[in-house]
Amino acid sequence: MELFKIGFLTVTLVDILDIVIVTFIFYRLYLIMRGTIAAQIFVGLLLIIAFSFVAQAINLKAMGWLLRTLTDIWVIAFIILFQPELRRLLVMLGKNRVIRRFIHLDVTEAYEEIASAAADLARKRHGALIVIARAAGMRSFVETGVSLQALVSKALLVSVFNPKSPLHDGAVIIKDRIIEAARCTLPFSHVTRIGENVLGMRHRAGIGISEQTDAIVVIVSEERGTISVAENGVIISGLSAQELLEELKNRLVVSTEKSWKNIWSGLKSNA
Known about the structure:
Blueprint: E1 2-6, E2 9-12, H1 13-33, H2 37-57, H3 61-72, H4 74-81, H5 83-94, H6 97-100, H7 110-124, E3 128-133, H8 139-142, E4 146-151, H9 154-160, E5 171-175, E6 178-184, E7 193-194, E8 197-198, H10 201-212, E9 216-220, E10 227-231, E11 234-239, H11 241-270
Parallel strand pairs: 3-5
Antiparallel strand pairs: 1-2, 3-9, 4-6, 5-6, 7-8, 9-10, 10-11
Helix pairs in contact: 2-3, 7-9, 7-11
């Protein structure tokens, strides 16, 4: 369906839809990269692409050839330069509710052990960083630590984060009901303070891993003896043992059970 013409170009409804979709994609990419060095590189690539179109339109052969050469390799450059941002984008897609409905987490017993251990560690003022993995792969972070492959238990978590333990530095990563590794290194968030509170390294690492993956992170402050939970880059602090238990239950168990109930109901209604 032809809408109008611009010179020799015919614009159809499909062309308008195509432009809107591409614009939306680039806009979302810019929002993800905004505030990072990658944002400046991203704008530079967009300018190169725009100049390439202009050069072709006005028939600048030399400039068009040069820009075409750059645009031929821009996909590879894009992947190399924006690897962290692309990973973050894919993780965000994995956090989508529709996709998450097909992911089952066996954490019914584990979250009670985690909450009990966090409460004990907070009372003793022993710092802790516990990462509960969900859909996003954590292998690259697990490999930075010491492999345990042990069933989650309060006693083991308390022992790992004892200041005299050689494994107490870094994070513990849990998948389903298994502690995969301890003393893991996590990426730091660019956030350094929340309100008037300056974040320590443990809290920045907890927020950082929650920004890059869909994991839920339990953080116990060594200085204040407080318990926090981080998810999607947002941290909730000052939780009691019971509040932590409810947070883990709601985030890890209830949402998953509801998703499967909704799927089952939909299947029965369509039968």
